[in-house]
Amino acid sequence: MSLDVPRTEAPVERLTAHEALQRLQHERATRLTQLQAVEEAGAETEEQMMFTQKEAIRRVLAEVEDAVARVQDGSYGLCQNCTTAIPVERLEILPYTPFCVPCQRKVA
Questions:
Q1: Radius of gyration for the chain, computed over Cα atoms and rounded to the nearest angstrom
Q2: Is the pTM for the entire model greater than 0.85?
Q3: Is 80 exposed, middle or buried (0-12, 13-18, 19+ CB in 10 A)?
Q4: Shortest CA distance to 54 belongs to which of 29, 34, 78, 76?
Q5: What is the pLDDT of residue 48?
Q6: 8: left (phi > 0), else alpha (psi -120 to 50), else beta?
Q7: Contact 57/38 with Cβ under 8 angstroms?
Q8: Domain 17-107 is of which CATH architecture?
Q9: Is the pLDDT of residue 80 over 80?
Q10: Closest listed residue to residue 15, CA positions, set 82, 80, 65, 70
């Protein structure tokens, strides 16, 4: 089989806005719970570790908020770099991702 033969593209499956918002709300609730747990454990936790965890959780919360804005403006599920549709499987795993896998590899 020749590698020059064009492949037929499967139809792109996308999450509905409702499904995306449900996943994002779950991510937000999870991160807020984590942040609260870290803050409550403050006296028992080494300060640098607590700072690092809080910053990581805040970064993910910001990414979730950005994804919610993309749902609202209709650009959710499209790669912010190449504008192709992000596979639903990727969005199910990481619902707030702004990039498809190839573009994520480029920016990482």
A1: 18
A2: no
A3: middle
A4: 34
A5: 74
A6: beta
A7: yes
A8: Up-down Bundle (1.20)
A9: yes
A10: 70
Asked if 35 and 58 touch (Cβ cutoff 8 Å), the reply is yes
For residue 4, what pLDDT is reported?
A: 46
With CA atoms as reference, report the closest residue to 34 among 14, 18, 55.
55
Instruction: Summarize pLDDT for 7-58 with one digit per residue, the tens.
Output: 455 556 778 889 999 999 999 999 899 888 877 776 666 677 778 888 999 9
* Mean confidence (pLDDT) of the chain: 85
Tokens 């499904």 found at: 19
Tokens representing 38 are 């870290």
Give Cα separations from 48 to 40, 54, 56, 61, 63 (angstroms). Answer: 15, 10, 12, 20, 23
